[in-house]
Design goal:
mainly alpha, Fumarate Reductase Cytochrome B subunit, two-stranded antiparallel sheet, 5 strands, 69% helix, binds protoporphyrin IX containing FE
Amino acid sequence: MSHSIQWRSLWRLPLLALVLPALVLVVGLALAQGAQAQSDPQGEAATAVPALDADTWRQVRSGEVDANYRDSRFDSTYNLVNASGETWRQWRNRWVSPYGLIVIGGMLAMIVLFYLIAGRKKLDEPRTGRKLLRWSAVSRSLHWSVATLFILLALSGLTLLYGKHVFYPLFGAGAWGAMVSASKLVHNYLGPFFGILLLILLAKLLVHNLPKKHDIDWFRKGGGLVGKEHPDAGFANAGEKAWYWLLATAGVVVIISGLVLDFPNYGQARDTMQWANLVHGIGALGLTAVALGHIYIGTLGTEGSLEGMTTGYVDETWAKEHHNLWYEEVKESAVPEEQLATGSKEATGGSSPQSST
Ligand code: HEM
């Protein structure tokens, strides 16, 4: 029996080894094509601003203002201002930046407050020492790749949006210049990889995240925070499903708007890119705030969760308390932890494809 299960899980390794280089190749080719398109100044000029013809200049000289241009000569600066660009700038600087900070800062404050009041959610019963396979090696690799890329994108994105106010006064123009160009490169090149890996992760987890009737009850009981009772949950509880569907909707919008910004020379005009920038910023800042909650729950917040995503296995007690319906399905496949420690973990029967993901 042990051998048949070992063979069954072996196919996953070469699959991963093939899929990742293929992804690198596809994204590399797309980036190279995008870079080539960007090196065409004619094409860029055609999409950057509305046509500057004789009529436009006549209109500018007359001091007349229209939807495309504003002339700021009355402020004695004598600048010709692109009106829609100015509107975008105002939206970004007056709304997206400050409210993004409020949402992320508010989430951090709520997490600290919650931890101070409620503390860590410990297991009610002692551990049994018997383990259930929850996350396969492929799922764990996908999860940690997506998480690492997300964190790098969040840090570089936050530097692009807020860094000027922090690093410029701290380190001066030279260091800030290097930081902002490094952030831009990291953000532009890692974004597409994040997009592809997130879509694969979402496809792999879909089956566990379909809404069920008991999810409503889970929300009504605040995921077990209201009262002592643990609400019913299958492989994924309703809170995890909410995180999943947020990634599948807002996450996908952030990816698509990011691609619109990443490859500017596929015909999209400046107005489209300004919209993409606002949508991308709002979506990404919102996701970053919720990701902080996810990271808290997955680490400090809940005893026993992180070990599932690092080792692949969870204790029976954790499964029973947090995912009782899933536990009922897989309880027969529990293995003593000593057996896992001796390295014969695959020889357990716990790696049935239906029971873990
Ligand atoms: C350091 C950062 C992170 C930590 C410590 C962490 C931790 C975890 C843990 C422990 C689980 C398993 C929960 C369970 O077994 O029920 C999990 C699941 C998951 N994580 Fe993370 N995570 C991190 C970042 C992220 C990020 C950035 C994303 C996406 C952008 C993400 C997406 C997911 C998804 C989709 C699931 C599955 C939930 C489901 O089944 O619906 N994680 N994470």
